[in-house]
Specification:
By secondary structure, the chain is of the alpha/beta class. About 35% of the residues lie in helices and about 15% in strands. It is globular, with a radius of gyration of 19 Å. The termini are far apart.
Length: about 325
């Protein structure tokens, strides 16, 4: 495992983090006891950062149950305040901050998270939605700062709704936040252009999500792959003809096995190449996959020329979230 400091602090965190969305059933149904063991399995192998959310179903509660059983050093726990509003409002387009986070809700949601996790303090609390128009209002930041002063949270962050990475640039420069979470993977390397350098300059932690593009970059997808009705990915890969997606993934196989033993390993190596990427968040609710992902960090990094080739010629920027939010 590799470790780095969080947002310029003395807090060490693992560069591969446990993305806990899968604990809530978003990627299939699993036995709860198995999911608890999956969290413990990753912690035993050196993972020290867990990222969950109020909106991830039973994820926080399951993380809390795992932490009760864990006998090692307490991991760094990140969560997200659940945004309000009917349906998928606010994910595809801007809504008023008063709709997403009415006054008092940030505290209420945080208190629920603390109870579910069984913790007195959450290390990083993130807004699960953020739009730059909200910077004209100051009450939401004041509420977060009060929670920080009271010791209920230690760091403040935001999660960008989709691929529009530039919406966070001004906030990163403001010095008001400690972390940004956004989409970053082989198909979408655009954070490398501005957001990651800005985070590096201002000592803001950068958390990469969708590292595997919801699993697509592992090469698992076929024309026949079916998903449960409750699976988050049910419409995700059909934004374009599925054959097109598979063909784009197959182009990456030229790098296997010379530079990675698997496509999943290649995806992780690509995202972690830049030192300012604090942590790559990947789903580790399947223990076998978690072991393979963690093992990637012990391998040699991608050579500079290979990294640049992937960055330049394998980018495929598109917003698959359109199938859900528009």
């Amino acid at each position: 495992m590799q470790y780095t400091s969080f947002a310029g602090s003395t807090d060490p965190v693992s560069r591969l983090g446990f993305g806990a969305m899968g604990l809530g059933g978003s990627f299939g149904t699993y036995d709860e006891a198995y999911l608890i063991q999956s969290v413990l399995h990753s912690l035993e192998q050196g993972v020290t950062l867990i990222d969950t959310a109020r909106a991830y179903g039973e994820s926080e509660r399951i993380v809390g149950l795992a932490l009760k059983e864990w006998r090692g050093e307490r991991p760094f726990v990140a969560s997200k305040i659940q945004s309000l509003g009917p349906g998928s409002i606010g994910w595809g387009t801007h809504i008023p901050v008063e709709t997403a986070y009415p006054q008092g809700w940030l505290r209420e949601s945080t208190e629920i998270s603390l109870k579910q996790l069984g913790l007195d303090t959450i290390d990083l609390m993130q807004l699960h939605q953020y739009w730059p128009q909200w910077d004209k209002k100051d009450y939401w930041m004041e509420e977060l700062l009060r929670l920080k002063e009271e010791g209920k949270i230690r760091y403040i962050g935001i999660s960008i709704p989709d691929q529009r990475h530039d919406i966070a640039l001004t906030l990163v420069q403001s010095g008001k936040i400690d972390a940004v979470q956004t989409v970053f993977n082989i198909f979408d390397p655009l954070p490398l252009d501005c957001l990651i350098p800005f985070c590096e300059e201002h000592q803001v932690a950068f958390l990469a999500r969708c590292v595997m593009d919801e699993g697509g970059l592992t090469g698992f997808l076929t024309k026949e792959t079916q998903f449960e009705s409750t699976d988050y990915r049910k419409s995700y890969f059909d934004y374009v003809p599925r054959e097109m997606y598979i063909e784009r993934v197959d182009r990456l196989r030229k790098f296997i096995p010379d530079y990675a033993d698997s496509l999943a390993e290649l995806a992780i190596k690509f995202v972690l190449k830049h030192p300012a990427v604090t942590t790559a968040l990947v789903s580790m609710h399947v223990q076998e996959q978690a072991t393979q992902n963690i093992a990637a960090l012990a391998k040699d990094p991608l050579p500079d020329d290979v990294f640049e080739e992937i960055r330049r010629y394998h980018r495929w920027v598109r917003n698959f979230y359109d199938t859900k939010f528009w």
